[in-house]
Every structure is written in structure tokens, then in C-alpha cells.
Amino acid sequence: MQIEHAQIPMGPESDGMVLELLQRTLDASAPNFPHLIRELACRVDRDLGRLPWTEGILAWLKTQSEAVYRVLAECLWDISAKDPSPEAARGATLILLALAEHTSGFDDKLLFDLAFHADSTEVTRMVGAYLLATVRTRSKALADLGNVAALSELVREQKDVEQGMRWWRALLDDLARNADTAHGEIVFSLIEERPELHFALRNGLLDVFDSLPSAEQQRLVRFMLNSVEAQPELVQLFVLDLLQYSPFLETARQVFGYQLDRQLRHLEQTAPSARIRNYVATLLTQWEISATSTMKAAARGDPELVRVVESQSIAEAVRAAKEWFNAQDVTRMSTILHNPKWGPEDYAFKALQLLGRERSLPVDLEFLCARLGCFLQAAHLPEGLDGLFIQRPGLPGPIILYNRAQSESRKRFTIAHELGHAIMPGHTRYLLHASRVSEPAEPRRLDDTEKTVAATGLLPCVGSEWEADADRFAAFLLMPRRWFAEAVWRTPMTLEGLKALAAEFGVSVTAAAFQAIRLTREAVAVVYSEQGVVRFQRMTDDFRDRVGPSASVLDWVGAGTVAATLLQANQEGLTQEAVVPATAWLDRPQVAEIHEQSLVTHTDHVLSLLTPVGEE
Ligand SMILES: [Zn+2]
Q1: Which stretches make up the IrrE N-terminal-like domain (predicted)?
Q2: Would the pLDDT of 468 be above 80?
């Protein structure tokens, strides 16, 4: 039985009328159901009361079973995909999209299929635009499709390669912005299953990469490179191709530092495919060849660093490093995995575990450097520069250089500090970093020169915040909490006691004093001053209890102090002690005098140990 046109009036109807009419005439089991739906679709397309009709259908559906829902969806799909009348196809697509938008349980696969099976390119465009607009909320559905074929077919469809690429981009964009790796697998399967599309897929990916803010760029790079060793050959080739694009490579260096080169070196030695091994070898050689100019570019903005990088001493160290790395087995180099919950002390603890059971004091830094795949050497460095951390492209580990003119304990502190840069997350962001260590390992303020360099935006060195972290790492690597705390508890907090601790652990008295005061239970304060200005200080709770709860150490070294007297003689290693007025050191003390022991650590630098009078 044919439904008469008259049954669907042409004029604008009220919502109530539409619904009533639909409920009376629509019967999914009637043979003329498809015709009626087609009539409806044409009507919706002509925009005659589109809204009431579409809403009428949605309302009608609510009173129907799931089976009817499916019948309607399939019926609409057929009209959208195949009906020769453009208006019927368009109208059916509009209703279908309304169903997708407003009903739960809609099968997204229908839309995917429609996007590349529709005869009408207009329908493809409508559905494609809708899916692109909702790709974010639909990411789960994308992943659930499980069947990569649907997506890859879309990409492969010759008539719609452009549309397919829009998909590919939307997918990657979503991945980078939302860190949702649910459809990460689709990305890799697509690369693997459609090698003939590599060129288009690669360009699509790099377009997306170029358009992203830097944090998302890093996420995309991390995603593509993270598991490259475990990927099939075709994916590895694809990823290596990406590294030929310099902005992508630069971001990869920022994210992974020397671990990028190490990972590739590893791949070069272990990949089953000769083609991959060859490709990686070529890539690494390319990086090595251009390394010198890359390093110079990294030093730009800091004239001192430029001079250092170009010096004979560094050139020799680099040559030695290359030889050393060539003789190393990359597969045996240890890497400490990152954990967002860890701080410097945790990383130091992890590094110490590499020493195994046979731990002895002082901590064997050379052994640790070798285990972690870091090249270590003394070098002629400008005064005031303690160490250099160099990540030279092509080398599977960092070059750690320390100033050979410094004292033994400061050299050790510097090496430990640089190891901190090699291990802790974020510290490998710059190819070149100049270290100025601070043995008290207390938080530092930006000094003026660092502020200037930071302001120019060209900062080859890591910020002070990272320097303080590296100092703390060094303190806990050289003076591991457990062993050091034990030693502190059996040693009196005097200069003599601290000197003994310093010798046992291979650190300076200053480093030992500040680490000890974090662990001791005695009433004591430690002050480190430079040219009479207090740079770092720390006191225990017991000390505060004894000298007054609101007492604090002054910002300068007072005239009545032993430190002030020593500063005049300024002779390294000079020690003296006395009872001095408390106000010479403290603001608002509640005691009249305190006991002071001071030591000139080196020219202009004094370490002072303050204890309440009467304290042994
Ligand atoms: Zn540093």
C-alpha cells in the first residue's frame, strides 16, 4: 500500500501535529516504510519545518524498540548512500546526523562507512565534517572500531585521499592534545598496513606537528619515538624518516637528550633488519658530521660558552670521548627510568643501587659514570666554571668535563652534580650546559648574570632551579642518607667532627656541614658566607629552641664575630673559635652569647658553626 503524499502535509505544522501524524503513520514493519522515510527526508532537506520533523522522528523513536531504531538507521543509510535524488540523500543524512547527535547507542561505524561509500560527494563531505568536528568526543568510538581497515580504507580511497588525510591529521592532533593513546594503535597499524601511503602519511603528520604548540609537539614526538625498538620494520622506517625533518629532530633532542642517540645506537646494533641497521648508521653519521656546528649554535648567546666550546681543550676531550664511546657496548649501558614522583634524593638512591652490594666509601664516581654510559674527563675550564655537560649529537652518552684546577672534593661534587643532569628528567634539554656548583646544596637565587642570559631568551644553560636539583642530587649521591646519618649520629657537630666526615665521604667540609645539619638532632646552626655576606644558612629546631623561637641569622657577618676576624687574615684552612655576642650573628636572640667555630674554606669564603653556649 502506497502512502499518499497527502498524508505528509506540505505546510508548516505545529510540533504537536507533526508528532501526532508521525505516530499515526510511521510503522517500521510496513512495506512502504522506506518510501515514507524518503518523503520525510526530502521534506527535511527542503527546510520545510525541518526542526519539528526531525524532532518528531526523535520523539517517535523513544516509543519504539531497538529493532525499529536499527531499521530506521539502515533505511536512512541506504537513502544517504545511494538515492539518486540529491535532496533525498541530503535530507536522510541530516536525519542520520541528528540521530548520531541526540541518541545513545548510535553505531558510529555507520557514519564511517557512509563517509566513503556514499555515491554523493556532498554526503561524504557532510558526514566527514560532522565526524571531524566531533572527533574528540568520538575518540573512544574511533578506538572501539578496532578494525583499522575502516580508517585506512578511508585514507586509501583514491577519490578521497584529501578527506582521508584530514582524518589522519585529526587523529594525530587529538592524540597530541589529549594524550589519549587509545587510538595510538590505529596510527601504527595504518603505517604498517599502508606502506604505499608513507609519503602522504608522513607529510600529514609533519603538518600536524608544525601546527602544534611546543608541549603538544613534544607529546607527539614522545609518542612516535617511545617504543621504536619494539616496532615492526615498516614503522621504524617511518619514524626514522621523521627524524630527517630538523624541527622534529630538534624536539626529539629536547625530549630525550642523549637517550635519543643511545636508543638509535642500540637499534643499530640489535635490529634484525639490515635495512634498519644501515639506515640508523647513516643517520648517526650525519648527526656526527654536523655535530660541531650544532654545538656552536647551542652555545650562541653566551660568549663565554662559545669560547669554551671552540677551545683546544674541549676539542681534545671530544676526540677522546668518541674513541671511548666506540669501545663501549651500548647494550650494557644502564639507564635510570624516570618517575614523576621522584626528587633528586630518589634519583641519587637509584644511582647508588648500581654499585651493587659491594659499596665502599667514598662513593666510586668513575664506576658510576662508566655504568651509566657517561664519558668523564678533567679539562682546562675558565675559572668559576666547575663543569660542562655536553650532549654531542651522534654520541650515545653525555660528555662530562670537570675543572681540573679545583680541589679534589669540589671535583667530586661537580662530577656528581653532572651525573644528576645526566639522570634527572628535563636536565638533558640543552646540548650544552655550564655548571657552577654550590656545595651547601641549598636553594639558590638567580644571580644577575643568569637573569641577563635568561632575559635574552637564548639560554644554553639550564636554569638555576635545575642547578639546585643537581646540587641536591650530588649531596645525596656522595653522602647517602642512611650511611651519612649513621656517621653523623656518632660524630660530634664540631669542625673537627665535620672534617672527619668530609674525609670519609670524599666531600668538602662545607658540603658535609650542610648535609649533616639536615640529619643531626643537635642544637646547631651552619652559616656559609662570602666576602662577609651570608649566602646560605640553616639551623636545627633544637638550636632555635635554645636561642629563641623568633631568632634568625642576619644577612651579613657582624663585626664581633670570629668569621669577621678570619676574613681579614683570609688564609685558606684557618680555623678559630670563641664565644661571641649572640647579636653579632642573630636577629632577636633570647640569649646573650653563642659559641662560634669558623673556617676559611677558600679565599673570601667562611664556614661558621654556631652552638648555644654550654653545649658540648
Ligand atoms: Zn649544572
Answers
A1: 377-514
A2: yes
Residue 451 banded pLDDT, cuts 50, 70, 90: very low
* Domains in the chain, number: 3
Residue 412 belongs to a domain: yes
Residues 457 and 590 in one domain: no
pLDDT at position 46? 74
**Rounded-to-integer distance, Cα 511 and Cα 521, Å:** 18
Residue 244 C-alpha to ligand 1 middle, in angstroms?
30
Helix (H, G, I), strand (E, B) or coil at 385: coil
| Residue 20 and residue 119 in one domain | yes
Which residues have CB under 8 Å from 44's CB, separation 6+?
Answer: 50, 53, 54, 91, 94, 95
Q: Are residues 203 and 350 in the same domain?
A: no
Q: Which of 448, 470, 492 is the last residue of a domain?
A: 470
Rg of the chain over all Cα atoms, to the nearest angstrom: 35
Residue 421 Cα, ligand 1 centroid: separation in angstroms? Answer: 7
- pLDDT (tens digit per residue) in 401-433: 999 999 999 999 999 999 999 999 988 888 888
| Residues 156, 114 within the same domain | yes
Distance between Cα 299 and ligand 1 center (Å) = 15
CA of 556 to the centre of ligand 1 (A): 27
On whether both 465 and 543 belong to a single domain, the answer is no
> For residue 431, how far is its CA from the centre of ligand 1 (angstroms)?
12
Nearest to 596, CA basis, from 568, 542, 558, 552: 558
How many angstroms separate the alpha carbon of residue 467 from the centre of ligand 1? Answer: 5
195-241 per-position pLDDT tens digit: 877 888 899 899 989 999 999 999 999 999 988 988 999 999 999 99
Asked whether residue 452 falls in the same domain as residue 488, the answer is no
Q: Are 527 and 608 in contact (CB under 8 A)?
A: yes
Q: Ligand 1 mean position to 598 CA, how many Å? A: 28
Q: Which domain holds residue 505?
A: 481-612
Q: What is the pLDDT of residue 12?
A: 53
Question: What pLDDT, on a 0 to 100 scale, did the predictor assign at position 548?
Answer: 92
Residue 390 dihedral angles phi and psi, to the nearest 5°? -120, 125
Report how far ligand 1's centroid is from the alpha carbon of 557 (Å). 28
β-strand pairing of 375-379 with 586-587: unpaired
**pLDDT above 80 for 256:** yes
ipTM confidence score: 1.00
CA of residue 259 to ligand 1 center, whole Å: 18
